[in-house]
Amino acid sequence: MLNLEEFARSGRLFDNRYQLLRPLSTDGGTADVWLAIDTNTIDMPDITDDENPQLPNAGMETGLKVAIKVYRPKNALDIEGEQRFRDEYKIVFNCHHTHLLQPINFSIFQETPYLVMPFCSHGSSAALIGQGVSNDELWRYIEHVASGLAYLHELRPPIIHQDVKPANVLIDDNGNYTITDFGISTKFGGGHHGYDEEESSGTLAYMAPERFQMNYQPMAESDIWAVGATLYEIITGQVPFGESGGVNQTNDTLRLTYPPGLSADIKKVIEACLNRDPAKRPTAQQLAAYGKAKKVPSKVMKILKWSLLPLVLIALGVAIFFQLSKEKKAEVQVKPTKSAKVVYDEAMTLINSQEPDSVKAGIYRLTDIEDSTYVPALYELAFTYGCYSDTVSLYRKQLLGIKVGNNNVDERAMRNMAPYLPQDDQYNNKAMTLFRRIVESPDNDYIETKMNAAYRLGVYYLYYTRNVSMAKKYYHLCQEWAIQLDDKDMLQMVAVALSEAK
Question: Which of 18, 247, 288, 449 fits as disulfide partner to 147, beta carbons 3.0 to 4.6 Å?
């Protein structure tokens, strides 16, 4: 068993190369991090005893200081584990981004893996907690962290960090915020590849609600929740939902308090990140854009960027109306908010026009009511994001820049499902969330739509998340509604599906 303190005390070199100086962190579940000197970089090395190498005092100050993450003895690797560790290091080594702290070396010493990383003398962003960080610096923090995550999330397969927190955002010598612990012993592309998976999968206080669900599959949206929790802690000194994280979070528990002087848009960023529904959180790419612009764009601006003349004229007309009203000091009676059905009808008019910009605008119009309970709107969005071979669904994905062709499915579905499954798992997760809301809707005016949504959920759970019990649950629901509607075609499809789910 390796005794790191003994290496430091005796002056013996760790793996015949590194002089351990002092621990930087011993709080992690799987590893200890030590400050060390790489003796290969000392100007005049004088190591002659190969069996018991000692670091010479002369020239010590010229050696490069590094941080070494040494995995604890219980993570000792067998031959298969060593190869997996090497394979994962290669993936991480090829991650090149300003805001990612890339390991510079790795090895396995006495069956114990370790990583060598640049030493950040300024420490981590945990030092910022409760220190009254300015709004400008917070925007800078958001931009840096989100851009690093966006890079990881957009890889193929994506890397999901799973342990975003202040201590894992370091401050480099140029004052930039850089993410560490983003590769080795995390999950890649939805599969477990860690060495101590039970403990290495994150820190409770920063875990999103969905991470506590049975058969959770790693998703980028969970990292976004952790960004929100991290920001809130830096600003207030407290994690948003206590040390247990999002396990008890419900829609009505989001009652956060902020110090005076905090930008209203930063509050919007935090609360958007902490949305209980993963599908309603911003992407890392969007967060980086907010950080760079130092504001959160309104949904109106999101639609206007497609340069739709009718919508521009409407917006201008509204602005002129209120301006004239103000100048005349007239009392303006605000019109009631449009119902979800009215918004849905407007959106579908745009979508059915077949004009590309109008179709995109119509889809964005639907997102304005995606938090409603109006089943037709929810299904149109699920149909847009989800796995469909239908040419209309594929056309919408093409317009939105959603690439299809995801091989992360059961072998039985490789031919019929993989070519139409979005590559970016965020869209598959959005579709599943929308399908679930449809199925759980108390509105029984749309039994056929609920039946179709239940069938789609069964397909996703059986072939995409490989959760057979959940697949059966939704197939049986679908079967009940098919019997009620006397839909013989659906009953036959469900019978086949249930036979495959055994």
Answer: 288
In three-state form (DSSP H/G/I as H, E/B as E, the rest C), the secondary structure along 437-448 is HHHHCCCHHHHH
Other beta carbons within 10 angstroms of residue 356's beta carbon come to 12
- The answer to whether the beta carbons of residues 186 and 163 sit under 8 Å apart is yes
3-state secondary structure 323-338: HHHHHCCCCCCCCCCC
What's the predicted TM-score (pTM) here?
0.56
Q: Who contacts 309 (Cβ-Cβ below 8 Å, separation ≥6)? A: none
Q: Which positions ≥6 away from 168 have C-beta within 8 Å?
A: 124, 161, 179, 180, 181
Token couple for 30 = 């799987």
Cβ atoms of residues 110 and 2 within 8 Å: yes
**What phi-psi label fits residue 245: left (phi over 0), alpha (psi between -120 and 50 degrees) or beta?**
left
Q: What is the pLDDT of residue 432?
A: 92
Is residue 247 within 8 Å of residue 225, measured between CB atoms? no
Exposure class string for 28-53: b at 16+ Cβ within 10 A, else e: bebbbbbbbbbbeebeebeeeeeeeb
> What is the per-residue pLDDT for 357?
85
pLDDT at 183: 56
What DSSP assignment string belongs to 212-253? GSTT----HHHHHHHHHHHHHHHHHSS-TT-TTGGGG--GGG
Question: What DSSP character marks residue 339?
Answer: P
What is the Cα–Cα distance from 167 to 171, expressed in whole angstroms?
Answer: 10
Tell me the residue length of the chain. 502
Low-confidence residues in the chain, pLDDT < 50: 45, 48, 55-56, 185-200, 300-308, 328-337
pLDDT at res. 198: 38
Q: Average pLDDT of the chain? A: 82
Structure confidence at residue 94 (pLDDT):
75
DSSP string for 364-383: HHHHTTTTS--HHHHHHHHH
